[in-house]
Write a structure and sequence with these properties.
- The chain has 283 residues and is an alpha+beta fold.
- The chain is 21% helix and 25% strand.
- The longest helix has 17 residues, at 127-143.
- The chain is globular.
Length: 283
């Protein structure tokens, strides 16, 4: 995972994308949850109402987290700044069980909500409901002017004074570990075949053999199932992003029809034909 993020940092420089960010990435391999973290984003695993794992936070000093980024130099060219994911990030491998709930969030979440504030919200039924509840609670706390949030506690430890919530971007990802034998969600099922539809020709034996060789193998033990699924690890998550400036509302996502390109109208001007006047010859 650290190598993937290192390539991401290099790609930012190649594409001339300016900016910086912390990150927390995770994937499931068998029953092991692999986590790579750089900065103050974090991930927790909740089992039976208790936190059994939490990734660490990396900062050079208070409110100065590790990050990767690309910024312009004095001569106008772009350069990479920050830490190296291959050497400065932290990597964890944690064995998960069926029913474990994974909560992954940006620093805006952990600056405003403590673990004791998140655990009661994990009792929701679906990953989407959990993510929306946690995101809404963090956004409300971030706008509170007198709330005593984790960011304030850490500021006092550093000898600083900060009152009220910490306004920041808030992103929450929630996933639930389930058995690989669990029923496939609707998002993964094939669309129904319309009645009276023409029968599809069967593939020949060699074609079926090639398809079987190219298909990814299912995980032998556990997979993470939630709202979205990303093959081949079958990792899915519900993502709720709450901007702190806007009051929390229930987000309803509607699919928009694909935009059609306007057809260009080409006007071809008529070609003007010039006729020469007849010449007169003087006798």
């Amino acid at each position: 995972l650290s190598l993937i993020m290192q390539r991401t940092s290099n790609r930012m420089l190649e594409d001339k994308k300016q900016g910086g960010a912390c990150y927390n990435v995770a994937r499931l391999v068998g029953s092991d949850l692999q986590v790579n973290n750089l900065g103050d984003c974090s991930l927790v695993v909740v089992r039976s109402g208790q936190v059994v794992f939490q990734s660490d936070v990396q900062q050079s000093r208070f409110n100065a987290p590790f990050q990767i980024g690309v910024v312009p130099s004095r001569d106008g060219t772009l350069k990479k700044v920050g830490e190296d994911p291959r050497t400065d990030s932290s990597t964890h491998v944690f064995p998960v069980r069926q029913g474990d709930i994974i909560v992954q969030g940006s620093d805006g979440l952990w600056d405003n909500l403590a673990i004791k504030d998140i655990l009661p919200l994990v009792k929701k039924h679906t990953p989407a409901a959990i993510a929306n509840a946690i995101g809404a609670a963090a956004a409300a706390r971030a706008r509170h002017r007198t709330a005593d949030v984790p960011f304030n506690v850490n500021a006092r430890k550093a000898g600083l004074k900060y009152v009220g919530g910490k306004l920041d971007d808030i992103t929450v990802v929630v996933a639930v570990v389930s058995s690989s034998a669990a029923p496939v969600p609707r998002s993964e099922t094939k669309p129904p075949v319309a009645q009276n539809a023409p029968a599809q020709p069967k593939a020949s034996a060699p074609a079926r053999s090639v398809a079987r060789r190219q298909a990814p193998r299912a995980l032998p033990t556990s997979t993470i199932r939630a709202t979205r699924v990303s093959p081949p690890l079958k990792v899915s998550a519900s993502r709720a992003t709450k901007p702190p400036q806007v009051a929390p509302k229930t987000a309803i996502t509607r699919a928009s029809p694909p935009a059609t390109r306007p057809q260009a109208t080409v006007v071809i001007p008529k070609t003007a034909t010039a006729r020469a006047a007849p010449l007169r010859v003087q006798p």
